[in-house]
Design brief:
The protein has 285 residues and is an alpha/beta fold. The protein has 2 domains: 84 residues, Rossmann fold, CATH 3.40.50; 124 residues, Rossmann fold (3-Layer(aba) Sandwich). 41% of the residues lie in helices and 15% in strands. It contains 10 helices and 11 strands. The strands form 3 sheets. Strands 1-11-8-7-5-6 form a 6-stranded parallel sheet. A 3-stranded parallel sheet has the order 3-2-4, with helices on both faces. A two-stranded antiparallel sheet has the order 9-10. Strand 2, helix 2 and strand 3 form a beta-alpha-beta unit. Helix 2 crosses helix 10. The longest helix is centred in the first third of the chain and has 21 residues. The mean pLDDT is 97. Bound molecules: 5,10-Methenyltetrahydrofolate.
């Protein structure tokens, strides 16, 4: 079998075109969706991601502020900034780029963001609402993955979904969201025994470990749907996923590439969540 490649990049372009129209319609009603991104320090990878977010917002006519703070910013200064953005009527989405420097308590910063503006979906209130199956801001990478599966008409209900990785921003929430869609979900991680036996049972395999070529064809069940969430920058500057794409292509029924797969969908869902926040804050449709 040769898998169908799911290009998130192309789907993202279609969705963003629709969002551009929506932003322009909102603007006519006096609502100007605004995403404010805070970055602390000068990690080149983080800077490149946030610039990507800024570019994407501007392309659909959305206002975006990038606040670049020095590495030396104190925990309290960051909390004060988040608090002022919470109260700023012109700001609808607040994203604090992770990871933060060691001296800043990440959890406290995330909890300081108003759940009404939590477009990342990382606030414990958003997570709790997701766990309860209630309407909320869903984290962008998992939401992007579900959108890709739905777009391809891939059935989720009753399928065995195996999630490799248990991070707070990808692994844990994607498992929960697949469970909410009636998949049977197994989480695997670095301490899992006989992990290959479990991987080979996966109808849907979500790989989010951050290790180049961690998954190869012999770990994949024939006909599985393989979603590669890895974002690994190699020494030569190229970006690669967690799955050995060439070999997996022969085994899977669908597979996402890196780049041009999940990444562009993540940013698209961030734009989606920001539009949703703006509508909710201003009570418009
Ligand atoms: N608070 C917070 N929210 C995040 O959503 C968040 C974060 N922190 N920290 C870092 C990760 C990483 N992340 C990516 C998003 C898009 C691409 C993306 O669009 N990648 C392109 C390629 C970009 C390139 O070539 O550099 C692609 O896969 O085609 C990658 C990585 C969001 N993150």
């Amino acid at each position: 079998m040769s898998a169908e490649v799911i290009y998130g990049r192309e789907l993202a372009n279609d969705l963003r075109e629709r969002m551009r129209q929506e932003v322009s319609k909102l603007s006519e009603q006096g609502v100007h969706p605004n995403l404010t991104v805070i970055i602390v320090g000068e990690d080149p990878a983080s800077l490149s991601y946030v610039r990507g977010k800024e570019r994407a917002s501007q392309k659909i006519g959305m206002q975006s502020n990038l606040i670049e703070l020095p590495e030396s910013t104190s925990h309290q200064e960051l909390l004060d900034l988040v608090d002022s953005l919470n109260h700023n009527q012109d700001v609808h989405g607040i994203l604090v780029q992770l990871p933060l420097p060691e001296h800043i308590n990440e959890d406290e910063v995330i909890e300081a963001i108003s759940p009404k503006k939590d477009v990342d979906g990382f606030h414990p209130i958003s997570i709790g609402r997701m766990m309860a199956g209630k309407e909320t801001f869903l984290p962008c990478t998992p939401l992007g993955i579900l959108t890709m599966l739905d777009e391809k008409g891939i059935e989720i209900e009753g399928k065995h979904a195996v999630v490799l990785g248990r991070s707070r921003i990808v692994g844990k929430p994607i498992g929960q969201m697949l469970l909410n869609r009636n998949a049977t979900v197994t989480y695997c991680h670095s301490k899992t025994n006989q992990v290959d036996d479990i991987l080979r049972q996966a109808d849907i395999l979500i790989v989010a470990v951050g290790k180049p070529s961690f998954i190869e064809a012999d770990q994949i069940k024939e006909g599985a749907v393989v979603i590669d969430v890895g974002v690994n920058r190699l020494e030569d500057g190229t970006l690669t996923g967690d799955v050995d794409f060439e070999s997996a292509l022969e085994k899977a029924s669908y597979i996402t590439p890196v780049p041009r797969g999940v990444g562009p969908m993540t940013i698209t869902m961030l734009l989606h969540n920001t539009i949703k926040a703006a509508k909710q804050i201003h009570s418009v449709e």
